[in-house]
Design goal:
Elements lengths: L4 E6 L5 H9 L2 E8 L2 E9 H7 L10 E5 L2 E12 L6 E8 L6 E10 L2 H5 L3 E4 L3 E6 L8 E4 L8 E3 L10 E2 L11 E6 L4 H16 L1
Parallel strand pairs: 1-4, 2-6, 7-10
Antiparallel strand pairs: 1-3, 2-3, 4-5, 5-6, 7-9, 8-13, 9-12, 11-13
Length: 207
């Protein structure tokens, strides 16, 4: 997988007015911080960041942020969008250093969802990403969750998810009561399910 590269420039013109002028010029304000260094205010072309954020790995991989020609390894910590326009308003980047653990969210990819469905179950997602702790070199682009073989009433919890080597769950580190379900196989709702319930009730009455 190739590293996503984002070109940026340092900026000294700060404040809401300056940010508004940048956006009118198809630029966006951004900031990079962390690694024991001072925060830096940046300017990035909107088209560059918009194209980059269309890739899922933009949110869960180490990016190469090129600031006035200088390479900096970063991850995305926050991205602000316009409430209804397809516009990025602001991006926060966190510097990462090899050998220093990072906390970030990684998307979940659910596979074999057709199998519980064929058995009459409804696959319900309760999370689409999880927060993990790992070194930058161990950061996965995504984590797979296999639901093959699950039946109605079954669930997959955080502790059931197989994490890549070198990664751990941030939530599970807080204690067993944070072992929440991320996917469940539910009973279908609707006429078919109601008919089935009526039939079961009739059998019970007959007994």
């Amino acid at each position: 997988m190739s590293t996503i590269e984002i070109s940026a420039s340092l900026r000294n013109d700060l404040g809401k007015g300056a940010s508004r002028r940048l956006r009118h010029a198809e630029q966006i304000p951004a900031v990079v911080y962390g690694a024991g260094k001072d925060a830096q205010a940046l300017t990035i072309e909107h088209r560059i960041i918009y194209k980059a954020q269309e890739q899922e790995s933009f949110y869960s991989q180490v990016l190469n942020l090129v600031i006035d020609g200088e390479n900096t390894d970063v991850i995305v910590k926050d991205i602000q969008r316009h409430p209804f326009k397809p516009k990025i308003m602001h991006v926060d980047f966190l510097r990462v250093v090899a050998g220093q653990e990072i906390h970030t969210t990684v998307p979940l990819h659910f596979i074999n969802e057709d199998q519980p469905a064929k058995a009459g179950g409804i696959v319900s997602h309760h999370a689409n990403e999880i927060e993990i702790a790992c070194l930058p070199k161990d950061l996965p682009e995504f984590i797979e969750v296999d639901v093959a073989g699950l039946k109605v009433g079954d669930s997959v919890h955080l502790s059931d998810v197989k994490l890549p080597a070198g990664a751990s769950s941030v939530e599970l580190a807080k204690g067993a009561d944070h072992d929440s379900a991320i996917v469940t196989i539910d009973k279908p709702k609707g006429p078919a399910a109601e008919d089935e319930g009526d039939a079961e009730a009739a059998e019970t009455d007959a007994e």
